Amino acid sequence: MNKQFYLSAVAAAVSLATTVQAAEIETIEVTATKRVENAQSIPVSVSALSADELKNLKIRDTTEISAQVPNMQISTPGGDSYPVISIRGISMDDYSINQSSSVAIYVDEVYKGNPSLQSGQMFDLQRIEVLRGPQGTLFGKNSTGGLVNFITKGPSWDTGGYLTAGIGNNNRKEVKGAYETELSDKLAVRVAGTFTEMDGWKKNSFPGAADSNAIDEWAARATFNYLPTDDVDITLKVAASKANPYNYAYTNIPGEAGYGAGYYELFNNAEVGLPALFGVTPPEGAPQNSYFVPEGQDFDEIQEDYVLKREIENSSASLNIVWDVSDEYSLTSITSFDSGDITIPEGDGSPNQVNSVVVSGDTTQFTQDLRLTSNLDGPFNYIVGAFVSKEEIDAPTSLSLFQDLDLNVDGNLDYLDCYDPLAAAFGLEMSPNGQQVEEALLTEGASLGLFASLGCSLQNDYTQEKTSLGLYFDGSYDLTKDTKLRFGARSTNDVIELSNFNAGYYGSDGTLVVPTIAQELLPEDEIDENEWSGKVSVDHILSTGDLVYVSYNRGYRSGAFNGQSFNDPSEAAPVDPEILDAFELGFKADFLSRQLRINGAAFYYDYEGQQFINVDPNTAAQTLQNIDSSTIKGLEFDITAALTDDLMLRAGFGYLDTEVDGGVISGVDVSGNQLTQSPEYNANIGLDYNQTLGDSGSINWHVDGTWSDKYYFDIHNTEAIAQDAYAVVNARVTWTSPDEGYEIAIWGKNLTDEEYLTKAFDLSGFGGVMAHYGQPVSYGAELTVNF
After folding, report:
1. How far apart are CA 769 and CA 761, in angstroms?
2. For the whole model, what pTM was predicted?
């Protein structure tokens, strides 16, 4: 699917809509302004996916949403339970476990800042709202790029529910369902749950090792709705989830010297390396050669010794109270508590132990939002409120390098393989074997010190506390009957504290070789910043009833500490906040008696201080830093067309022009480069045809596709880890019984078996590239019973 095909398909569909009498497009109500409003009446770029659309799209996790939203991309540096979202080129490139994304995640208006709190949301949903552009007033916290709000289904005060069971390839099994009932005339409950299990689709040829990219997850939620009086609405939600599958494994793409860069041939090889020179027998089982991909191995196959289970477990409770104080005012209180644990182990996609990472976090979060909403008869209305959150995370991380490399060539793998290269680098006394290796290397103009940190496990552990207080005001004033001025501001105080920080280098046998960072050595251990964000816009309703608007929004993302500091206290120094000034011109229009809907926007961003995690290709050391500024320009369109009474089209198109105006990463000037995850063009299209079969029920035929232009995974725009243009096509066919009591569906995803990256890292200093790929073709069937 290329641009020309996509545009031709949309043009043909629009032409059909002009000639065929069809049903009206339904009104979509959203809560993007923290009021229930028609999406066509608000000056916000919002895409909403309904419950029916989510079912037809067979969306299981957050990573799949981007295929349905213009100018939205999602990468997976830690698997599909750890999404990194980009909207309009605004992304998070500092993906340490202690960081919060620049695209905020909410569930029923509850902020979910940490990845350990974000999994297990994609079931029994009313809709998903994706807001594009900074949301610096009503939502505010870390939403420079926009936000994704998951709206769950609550009790409807009827008794009933559904149960769905499904199977699929790779031994996929899934069950999900919900049940609701009235407990009294004032209290109702809805319970829902989901379970999915699937074998890993990336087949592993390493003896005794598991296949990777599996699914093993469950989630459950109970929602209680209590109406003590006509003026008070109380909703209590409790939820829990757990994901414990064999983790994503990287596909390793070695360079000319193989993954390992020839180090195994030098230190481990008994025929051509230093062991042959010294007459030493290499350690038993240690590889003697760098890794090359076996002949005939495909992208969905690996040879990986290090495939462990990822674990993400969380629980939450929220209490939402809405009190209509009078006809003119309502008071809303949303209180939440979340806790989550996350452990993500990652290997390097090879049978050698070149590099592996274990990222962990134990998180608790409390939030409180309190706001007063007016509903006045006059031209002026407003929302005023306060938001407070407190997050605490304990976050141990380890980065292990060449744990199977005998760097001092003594025939053993132990702490000396870490110590001796460090000693050579800093002029310390080495072991006898280490000294022998150093002398041999010096004759060739090299030194064992060049390999410092190899043979080591770099480990850190710390506690981070974030406290945020926001005061906000959002108002609107009717300048005329058809023209509205909207304005708002938010003042935010963020305090981030590090404590109990320690880091060190450990040997492959677990021995502490050298401590590197202690709490008392940190250059700073607290960030205390005050920032403002806000908006001003003017929207006008034309004589046709369509909306045009112009807006300015200012977004803010807090400063941060580098959670991947291992080598020196200076690595833990904080970075400044990100600031985004966004200008947007947009319209929302219905045509042909509401058979055709086109929403569009053009935008210009001035983006300052984006925070980047930099992976040094030669050492794998990671630092966090700001770049000076970037400019983003773009267009996007959301299109919905009722082509006939039974045929519906949904499509989107996005254009992005991103450029770094000034910035230096690791001594390299990146000015003129594209921002990460920002393809120049992207598009999506979906068709639904409802076929009535009379007494035999009905069939819904659904097909959708997404196409993305080339984009980069790093700010250096490294071609070796770029994703070229690609397309993915999915389909679903659902039969519904005449009484709508039963549904049988068959579905398929990535039907053309497209090979595409979801994340890649350039580790050329280690001899190659590590890449995550999207899932190849998958398919299955489902049976749903409605009762």
Report:
1. 6
2. 0.92
